[in-house]
Amino acid sequence: MLIAHTIPELRDALASHRHPSFVPTMGNLHEGHLALVRQARPLGDVTVASIFVNRLQFLPHEDFDSYPRTWDADCAALRTAGCDVLFAPREADLYPEPQTFKVHPDPALADMLEGHFRPGFFVGVSTVVMKLFACVLGASGGTAVFGKKDYQQLMVIRHMVQQFALPVQIVAGETSRAPDGLALSSRNGYLSPEERQEAVALSQALRQLAQAWCTATPPAPALEAHAMQTLQARGWQPDYLTVRRRSDLLPPAAHDGPGSLVALGAARLGSTRLIDNHEF
Ligand code: PAF
How many angstroms does the Cα of residue 143 sit away from the middle of ligand 1? Predict the structure, then answer.
């Protein structure tokens, strides 16, 4: 696996390739990331991953400084997964000057859910992904694989690609889960052993919410409130548990039935904020 730290090094490494497939990450890789890399492999003539902890997408009180950086293990794991080129820019390589040009996604999509609780998050994500696409996929384009675990992020990126006519095909990867059903996430590493046992309750609550939505009569807000209260009673601090349309993440209309919906949730367990979703 070739490692490029600077944009010129990366461009040299990719010069003879016409269709990279790309998996952007912030490192601290787990099986979920590696599954995306394996999924990307047949989709291009060279498989590229990036590791860059993007300051722009963290709020001042969030975990930018403490975000786990596990360089050696990440490199070994990417090699095993079949990554050909790793782009790992230092901050000064990707942002040699303050990034004053930014991508502002449509607030109708980006200011709800995650964007409501993490203002500016999707500006930071869209800006870095646009820049990574420019570095990795360039003018001739390629394919990029994003996990469905970050459901709203995937949707924001799809809209960005469509609105800017980027020559990038976005492919969704299914969420990888631990045997008990917990969605794999770099932030799971923050959980104490007791919290780790409890953490699966978020995905269970989302499945139960989806089930109740399909079968029960109470109005939708009551089902969502009940799901939040159930988690609260177990010691969580939920930000949201909600059912939305997959197409635009807006609350479903009467005619939007199962097959077109997704239950999304974010909640804090101790000091760790987890997100998950369940399509139904
Ligand atoms: O999902 C992530 O890890 C990050 O948001 C991404 C897409 C790598 C941008 O920093």
Answer: 16
Ligand 1 contacts CB of residue 29 (under 6 A): no
Q: What average pLDDT does the segment 158-185 reach?
A: 98
End-to-end CA distance of the chain: 39
Which one-letter amino acid corresponds to residue 152? Q
Nearest residue to 25 via CA among 186, 178, 264, 157? 186
Is 13's C-beta closer than 6 angstroms to any atom of ligand 1?
Answer: no
124: Cβ contacts below 8 Å, ≥ 6 apart: 54, 55, 56, 57, 58
pLDDT digits (tens, 9 = 90+) for 16-30: 999 999 999 999 999
Looking at residue 152, the DSSP 8-state letter turns out to be H
Q: What distance in Å separates the CA atoms of residue 239 and residue 87, rounded to the nearest whole number?
A: 34
For residue 125, report the distance from its CA to the centre of ligand 1, in Å. 6
| pTM across the whole model | 0.97
Average confidence (pLDDT) over 189-214 = 97
What tokens appear for 33 in the block? Answer: 């990331």
Question: What are the angstrom distances between the C-alpha of 16 and each of 19, 136, 219?
Answer: 10, 13, 57
Going along the chain from its start, the domains and CATH numbers come out as 2-173 (3.40.50.620), 186-279 (3.30.1300.10)
Ligand 1: residue whose CA is nearest its atom 6:
25
